[in-house]
Amino acid sequence: MVDETRVHSARRYNYWLGGKDNFAVDRESGDLIAKNFPTIRITAVENRGFLRRAVTHLAAEAGVRQFLDIGTGLPTANNTHEVAQRIAPDARIVYVDNDPMVLVHARALLTSTPEGRTAYIEADLRDPGKILADPALREVLDLRQPVAVMLIAVLHFIEDTGEAARIVRTLLDALPSGSFVAISNGTADFADEQTRARFAALMARGQLDAFVRTADEVGVLVEGLEVLEPGIVPVSEWRADEEPGPRPTPAEVAVYGVVARKS
Ligand SMILES: C[S@@+](CC[C@H](N)C(=O)[O-])C[C@H]1O[C@@H](n2cnc3c(N)ncnc32)[C@H](O)[C@@H]1O
């Protein structure tokens, strides 16, 4: 059921990215957060840039042909399958989100090349076993071959870092060596005191549901994996040499990105 009276993170993010698939309640929440963190639109755009560059690297340099994109969001420019299949038309992508609004728009995610495949599953990241066992996933992905798990701007909805790390581990445990995980997660590491206080107040009032993590906490999520260069850095700085300048500051972006490989 699509509920127009409750804020949905997918629709609010769509609003920040300049999309049209959102309701008044999402725009109000988006504006309130933007009032307290005026660079939130830069954050959203830079996060999408990281997704694009990470998929590009994984498909072009690492040779990955299978992607499991959990917390997909509403379709927008440069969805995972579009980026991957531009490089490798035979790439296979499974999308997962728990927001029924994303399901309504899933057709736009299913525009695979004839050589590749895409599928969409409505499921919750908190139950990774169920995602892995889903017949639609099994039909599209061969879990004996490497898979890149994309967890972009979704783990920060899971407050407990231990639980988030267990989810990442469960997913990677089901995949062969040579698989990858790409993660982005909001951070307050670069925020000044006033920004931290404004965030804490929004959280306390239940007006914000994204839990920020320090670089060390993001490190816990990829423990035991081989972290690719340049490590855990603001998403805007992850292999961004070819992005047009001027680049935003880490404080404006406030999201860490990391890509790691299972050896
Ligand atoms: C901020 S958007 C990120 C979209 C996309 N990954 C990106 O980075 O551009 C977060 C998405 O995660 C989804 N989401 C949040 N919690 C989830 C959960 N527990 N299971 C599955 N999806 C979830 C939301 O519905 C939303 O579509």
UniProtKB/TrEMBL annotation:
The keyword Transferase applies. Transmembrane segments: none annotated. One of its GO terms (biological process) is methylation. It holds the Pfam family Methyltransf_19. InterPro entries: SAM-dependent_MTases_sf, SAM_dep_MeTrfase_SAV2177_type. Gene3D superfamilies: Vaccinia Virus protein VP39 (3.40.50.150). GO terms for molecular function: methyltransferase activity. It comes from the Bacteria. Keywords: Methyltransferase, Transferase. The keyword Oxidoreductase does not apply. This is Trans-aconitate methyltransferase.
